C-alpha cells in the first residue's frame, strides 16, 4: 500500500488524540505513517521530515501538537505539501493555546487548522481523505459511502435511555 499521509506529533502523549486520525485513514483504506517529530525537542528530525516529504511520496501531512504548538507551522514552512493542524488539548489552557499557536499563521504558509482534540484529529483524517479523493475516484466513492453511513446512523427522534 502507498503511504500518502504522514501523521506527525510532538510527543508520545499526543498519540491518544492523533490515533483518531489514523483510525479514519484505516477505515478508508488510506496508507499512512505515524512519527513523533517535535519542533522543540527534535528540530533536526522536523527539518529532515519536511525536506524529504515530497520525494518520499507523501501527499498530505497531518500534524498534531499541544501548548506552544509550532510543529504544524514549521512543517508548513519546510514543505509545499498541505499541512492539516490538530490542536491537542492541554491541561493548563484546555488547548486554546494549541489552537491559537496553530491557527495564526502569517501570509504565505497556511495550516488547515482543525478543532481542538479528538474530533479535530478525526476530521484531519477526513480532510486528508478529501484531498486525496480529488485524484482517486475509488477513494472518493469510499469517502462518499462513509459520509452516507454516518448520516444514516443519526436517529430522527431522541429516545429516553
Ligand atoms: C508538545 O508538548 C507536544 O505536542 C505535547 O502536546 C505537549 C506535551 O508533551 P509531553 O510533555 O507530554 O511530552 O510538544
Structural features, described:
With 161 residues, this protein is α/β, with parallel strands linked by helices. It has one domain: 3-Layer(aba) Sandwich (Rossmann fold). It has helices at 15-27, 43-52, 71-78, 96-103, 118-133, 137-152, and strands spanning 5-9, 32-36, 60-66, 83-88, 112-113. It has a five-stranded parallel beta sheet, sandwiched between helices. α1 (15-27) runs parallel beside α5 (118-133) and α5 (118-133) packs antiparallel against α6 (137-152). The longest helix has 16 residues, at 118-133. The radius of gyration is 16 Å and the shape is globular. The protein binds 5-O-phosphono-beta-D-ribofuranose. The site of 5-O-phosphono-beta-D-ribofuranose has 9 residues, from β3.
Task: Outline the secondary-structure elements.
Elements: E1 5-9, H1 15-27, E2 32-36, H2 43-52, E3 60-66, H3 71-78, E4 83-88, H4 96-103, E5 112-113, H5 118-133, H6 137-152
Parallel strand pairs: 1-2, 1-3, 3-4, 4-5
Helix pairs in contact: 1-5, 2-3, 5-6
This protein binds 5-O-phosphono-beta-D-ribofuranose.
5-O-phosphono-beta-D-ribofuranose (RP5) binds at residues 10-11, 13-14, 38, 65-67, 88.
